[in-house]
Amino acid sequence: MNDVYTVFEGRLKFLIDVLDEHNYVNCFRSMLDLTVFCTMAEYEDGVLISEVLENVFYDMAYLYDTRQVEDKDKIEITRLLKKQIAEILKTYRTDTNKAYASLKKMRFESTKHQLHWENMANKKTDQTIDE
């Protein structure tokens, strides 16, 4: 099981490292791979955590692909996501209640962020000029 934990922790650390780039597609794909891995390893907590993260990053990727979100708000939600992922990393093996509370906070705050920008931000437009 230690190998499973090593892979799981490595993927979460990867997220913390790349979130500043706001590349949520990459984060989504990484969590999709982790979900498959945890399922094959029959690691139930890992499946739950990676599934929620997968969904968070899928939704964020869609939001940033379709809406013009202000940089300061991208930075704020990124800071929150990184903080919650770090908390999950710290507690997922010793206190699943704390890990799940961080997961719940992350899902709630990212949903709130998405709903705000879905309603408030301008849609991105195709910049291609037909000749």
> What is the 3D shape?
elongated
**Total separate domains:** 1
Number of helices: 5
Oligomer: single chain
The total beta strand count reads: 0
Mean pLDDT: 90
Largest sheet: none
One letter per element, helices H and strands E, the order comes to HHHHH
Low-pLDDT parts are 127-131
Please state the CA-atom Rg, rounded to the nearest Å: 16 Å
Structural class: mainly alpha
Short summary of the structure?
79% of the residues lie in helices and 0% in strands. With 131 residues, it is mainly α.
Q: Care to describe what's here?
A:
The chain has 131 residues and is mainly alpha-helical. The chain has one domain (2-120). The chain is built from 5 helices and no strands. It has helices spanning 2-18, 24-40, 44-66, 71-91, 96-120. The radius of gyration is 16 Å and the shape is elongated.
Keywords:
elongated, 131 residues, mainly alpha, single chain, 79% helix, 5 helices, disordered C terminus, 0% strand
In terms of topology, how is this protein built?
Blueprint: H1 2-18, H2 24-40, H3 44-66, H4 71-91, H5 96-120
